[in-house]
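This part of the workshop introduces the protein records we will be handling. To make this concrete, we reproduce a full record directly below.
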Amino acid sequence: MYKDFRDFLKDSIRKKIDFSQTAQSRGIAQPSWQKPYPPEAKKIELVTPGKWKTIPAINLESAIARRKSRRNYTKQALSLEELAFLLWATQGLRIAGAAKHNFRTVPSAGCRHAVETYIAALRVTGLEKAVYRYLPLDHALVEVVRYPDLEEQLTRATFGQAFCGAAAATFIWTAMPERMEWRYGEASYKVIALDAGHICQNLYLACENIGAGTCAVAAYDQEEIDRVLGVDGRDEFVIYMAPVGKVVAVPEDE
């Protein structure tokens, strides 16, 4: 038995994959690419990628050069279109209408995409304060849970990192290991961690494009943040976080 995820991850890095024993090799149907949602849940449709009205054209060189962790945010809200852009940039479909292929805007081992995206929306125009989940195959949101003290819960779950509760929205990514294990067995945890890194880097770059900032967070109380999202901590658990907020513009040479 492993004491925690870190021990499992260290061991999984050394694992050799016996592909003959994976669920895929044994003919088991692959897990869904998207976590199901209750049929009665109301979907919040988002602006179609490529039809943005307020998202400026991106200068990739400039975004890369400016990219850094930002923890101080203004009180300005994110627009729903800006949030839609960030969601598409980090987990959206790369090719419109290609849901059956699961081609997304970030790389994933074996195109498995074992990560789900939750949004703790604190100041997003058009959204009530609540936790939502992104549906990449639908490019939509569904509400998960509401907390009147969501800001405080985020701060407490991240060991007092107040900027997590001061952001306009905090991205919270969970891992659903079964999707990756289907192909890679016990070696899955290494590539799930790599996938989370790809996702967060896209968020950093996309934030630079809309005058926002972010800061990756891996220091959190695992049981507490899993509880906030209502996930079981075994078949699905939080793997990474990143608060997002508008930042004061600074000269290019700073």
Remarks:
- The first strand starts at residue 43 and ends at 45.
- The mean pLDDT is 90.
